[in-house]
Specification:
Helix 1 crosses helix 18, helix 6 runs antiparallel to helix 17 and helix 7 crosses helix 19. This protein is 50% helix and 15% strand. The chain has 460 residues and is of the alpha+beta class. The chain starts with a helix and ends in a 10-residue tail after the last helix. The radius of gyration is 22 Å and the shape is globular. Strands 8-9-10-11-13-12 form a 6-stranded antiparallel beta sheet, with helices on both faces. Strand 10 and strand 11 form a beta hairpin. The longest helix is centred in the C-terminal third of the chain and has 29 residues.
Length: 460
């Protein structure tokens, strides 16, 4: 279609789904029990780690929200949509944005979690983002008027960025990214020189967070060999999970497993990977919502024992969006994650790939692979001042728009949203209403723990 026809499509979508309709939300009469949804997820996870997940989610409503993607996906399923689909992140809350190294060694800001990615309605990502803003603002004790103002700013960041992107040339949209220089400019403009100085200290620290730093922090020397140090239950080396003979047999399989992963990389990355040899592996607990899924770290060594590469091999289960938008076209869930990430991110990890393998329990599972640390840095959302939270929400909104524009129809979405603030106001209303529900769900988790229905392990 022409640009005019695509814009007309976006405007016609307002008839079936008026922008004001996004502001109204109430729990469905047959809404699933949120605790039952968490229990259903736990069935496929490592049983002894599930209490850690519940413990981390119990800390606060925002911590609960981070682990409640499945609950919110079920809540979003019956809500009105424009009918315009994009590649969804699936879990686009504030803490799933951050900085990391691009292949050309620039620090860039982007979405950084794609465990739930699938094609679906663009509104779902934006609603999850703006709801996370409302939940975070409540953690700060901000008044309702201030919270809604911050939520509107987040939507405005998305809307205005999408309108700008709709006028760009296709390749310009694809190459667009937010780099360190642009971040610094925005920080100084919005928050002044003191904030810029803190930002520069933070980026300098992030650039030290790489495989070399991980090697110093996570390994030890035993009999002249480098190996991953145990820190149970968060880090458990393979040698501690299996009898010595079985562990040795499993390590013998690593050559075949690495070869299978290698085949998913571009040819030049295969040559690079071939310069490293496998040294050790361990199970490592990560995140909040991901706790209980299988996540391994692999220590690889290059020219000598002081030349490390740490890879993370993380289990990819079926997306929580799948029951509501349909199954992925990729049979391998690790590939689903990788392909979605490559579509949405301005630049992706050079070692991003996938694998399917049989686990220690004899069951076949899918994984995606990336570097463990590569300048990764996340904002401390719960420590932000109100003004900073508003600016950060706007930045995340614009970043989400850029990700959606790479794989969706920016012209149609921009036309649907329009130049006014109708969508901003409606989605801010939704965010407040959903934050109320999130607090009720968090309280239900605490009740389930207190009653003994769920076992929680805190402090880890």
């Amino acid at each position: 279609m022409s640009v005019a026809e695509r814009a007309a499509t976006g405007k016609r979508a307002r008839v079936a789904a008026p922008r004001s309709a996004h502001g109204a939300w109430q729990p469905a009469t047959d809404r699933p029990d949120p605790i039952a949804l968490l229990e259903a997820q736990a069935a496929s996870r490592v049983p002894e780690l599930v209490p850690i997940r519940y413990g981390r989610m119990s800390v606060s409503p925002f911590a609960f929200f981070r682990g409640a993607a499945a609950i919110m996906a079920a809540d979003l399923a019956p809500t009105p949509t424009s009918g315009i689909r994009v590649q969804l992140c699936g879990d686009a809350h504030l803490s799933n944005f951050g900085g990391f190294a691009s292949p050309d060694r620039e620090l860039i800001f982007d979405l950084n979690d794609f465990d739930e990615t699938l094609p679906g309605p663009w509104e779902w990502d934006l609603k999850r983002l703006v709801a996370s803003v409302a939940v975070a603002a409540r953690e700060h004790g901000l008044a309702r008027r201030v919270r809604k103002g911050i939520a509107r700013e987040t939507v405005r960041g998305y809307r205005e960025a999408m309108r700008a992107l709709a006028g760009w040339r296709t390749l310009d949209v694809w190459y667009a990214r937010i780099d360190e220089q642009e971040l610094a400019r925005q920080v100084q403009a919005l928050s002044g020189k003191d904030a810029l100085a803190r930002f520069e200290r933070g980026t300098a620290k992030a650039k030290r967070k790489d495989s070399t730093r991980a090697f110093a922090k996570l390994t030890q020397r035993v009999n002249g060999q480098s190996q991953i140090a145990a820190d149970p239950p968060l880090i458990v080396p393979l040698r501690d999970l299996l009898p010595a003979e079985q562990a040795a047999d499993f390590e013998d399989r690593m050559a075949r497993l690495i070869a299978a992963y290698r085949a998913t990389l571009p040819a030049d990355r295969r040559v690079l990977l071939d310069r490293f040899r496998f040294a050790d592996m361990a199970h490592k607990v990560v995140g909040v919502g991901s706790v209980g899924t299988r996540a391994w770290i692999l220590l690889m060594l290059g020219r000598d024992d002081e030349d490390p590469l740490f890879l993370q091999c993380k289990e990819a289960q079926t997306s929580v969006l799948a029951p509501h938008v349909g199954a992925s076209r990729f049979s391998n869930q690790g590939r689903r994650v990788v392909e979605g990430q490559r579509l949405m991110q301005a630049a992706s990890d050079i070692f991003l790939g996938w694998i399917r393998t049989t686990g220690l329990d004899g069951r076949e599972r899918d994984f995606y692979v990336r570097q463990l640390w590569d300048w990764k840095v996340s904002a401390d959302v719960e420590a932000m001042e109100p003004e900073t939270l508003g600016a950060y929400g706007r930045l995340c909104g614009a970043t989400l728009a850029r990700a959606h524009a790479r794989c969706g129809d920016a012209v149609a979405i921009a036309a649907y949203l329009g130049s006014g603030d109708a969508a901003d106001r409606a989605l801010a209303d939704f965010a407040e209403t959903y934050a109320d529900q999130n607090e009720r769900d968090h309280a239900a988790l605490l009740t389930a723990i207190e009653a003994g229905r769920l076992k929680a392990q805190t402090g880890v």
